[in-house]
Specification:
Structural class: alpha+beta
Helix content: 40-55%
Number of helices: 3
Order of helices and strands: EHEHEEH
Strand order of the largest sheet: 2-1-3-4
Number of strands: 4
Mean pLDDT: 95
Radius of gyration: 12 Å
Distance between the termini: 15 Å
CATH class: Alpha Beta
């Protein structure tokens, strides 16, 4: 699984990245977590408001610092889609 946190590196982006790491650890899965800080990279996903969260190349959230529980749900949904 590939997860990307999109944003310029602000405190909200850092918080989201930390929570993503917590969610991945909580689920006990393997995932590559990348921070995308360049604007061209962020625009590639259609991000209009940071921070953004991309799971398996799909923008699943923007403009919000999600809770660990919300991120866990999004990851679980993406895992279910992978298995379909």
């Amino acid at each position: 699984m590939e997860i990307k946190v999109l944003g310029p590196g602000c405190i909200n982006c850092q918080t989201l990245a930390k929570r993503v790491s917590e969610a991945v650890a909580k689920l006990g899965i393997e995932a590559t977590i990348t921070k995308v800080t360049d604007y061209d990279g962020m625009l590639k996903y259609g991000l209009m408001s940071s921070p953004g969260l991309v799971i398996n190349e799909k923008l699943v959230s923007s403009g919000r610092v999600l809770s660990v529980a919300d991120i866990t749900t999004l990851i679980t949904n993406a895992l279910t889609e992978e298995q379909s």
